[in-house]
Amino acid sequence: MAAGDGVVKSAERVTALLELLGERRTPMRLMEVAQALDIPKSSAHGLLQTLMARGFVVRDDLQRYRIGMKLFSLAATALEFMDIREMARPTMEVLAERERATCNLAVLDGHDVLYIEKVEDRSNPVRLVTHVGTRLPAHVTALGKVLVAELPPAARRLWLSEHEFSKLTSQTRTSAVQFSRDLKQYENVGYALDRHEFHDAINGFAAPISDATGSVVAALSLTCLGTSTPEDEQVAIGKRVCDAAEEISLNLHSNGVVGA
C-alpha cells in the first residue's frame, strides 16, 4: 500500500535493503540486515528470499548475503544507455528544432520499442504522449521497423513468428507479411516510415544508430504531426534523419561506445 506521499512501503524496504548491501564491503547475516533496517527478522528473510529468487542477492556458504551480479548487469546497461543518450542529445536537439518536430531515441526490448531519450520542438504547443521510459509495440513505429530489420536473420524470423500484430489504427500492419514489406522498404531506402500506424495524427521517420563495433544498438526517429507528408518531402526528411543518425553513430564510434 502507498503512503500519502505515494511511496510504496514494501518497495521502499527493498531499495533500502539493496542500498545497505551495496554499501557494505563484506556480506551480512540475516540478523544484521534486520537490525540495520530496523525490521522484524521474518520480514528481512522474506525480502532476501525474494531478491535471491530474482538474482539480485546471493547467499554464501556461511549464510551471509551480498549483492548479486544481476544488479551489476543492470547498472552496466544503464551506463551504456547513458553514454548513448548523452552523445545523441545535441544532434537530436538540432534536428527537432530544424524540423519543428519531436526527436526520439529508442532501443528494442523484446517485442517493444523502449524510448530512452526524447527532444521536443519547444515552439510547438502540441506535445506527444510518449516520454522516456515509454514502451510501444514495435510494429506500430518507424523505430521498431528499423530495430527489427537489423536483427540477425534467424532472430528476425523468430521475432516475426512470435509477435502479436495488434491493430491501433486503420493503417497498422496486422500481419508479419505486411510488416515484412515495410522492413524491405527500409532496407532499400535506409530509413523506415510510420504512416499513421500508431496514431492517426502522427507520421514517423527512423534510421539506425550503430556503436563502435558497427552493431545497430538504437534507432533515431522524427515524429511529425499532421497529414501524410508528400513523397518528395518525405524523401528529404528521411535523408535528414539518416544524416542525423549517422552523425550520432560516428560520435559513438570515435568515443568507443559499445551499446547494450
Automatic annotation (TrEMBL):
Keywords annotated in UniProt: DNA-binding, Transcription, Transcription regulation
Entry-linked Pfam families: HTH_IclR (PF09339), IclR_C (PF01614)
Domain HTH iclR-type: 8-69
InterPro entries for the chain: GAF-like_dom_sf (IPR029016), HTH_MetabolicPath_Reg (IPR050707), Tscrpt_reg_IclR_C (IPR014757), Tscrpt_reg_IclR_N (IPR005471), WH-like_DNA-bd_sf (IPR036388), WH_DNA-bd_sf (IPR036390)
Gene3D superfamilies, alphabetized: 3.30.450.40, Winged helix-like DNA-binding domain superfamily/Winged helix DNA-binding domain (1.10.10.10)
Residue ranges of every copy of the IclR-ED domain listed in the record: 70-254
Domain of life: Bacteria
UniProt protein name: IclR family transcriptional regulator
Organism: Saccharopolyspora oryzae
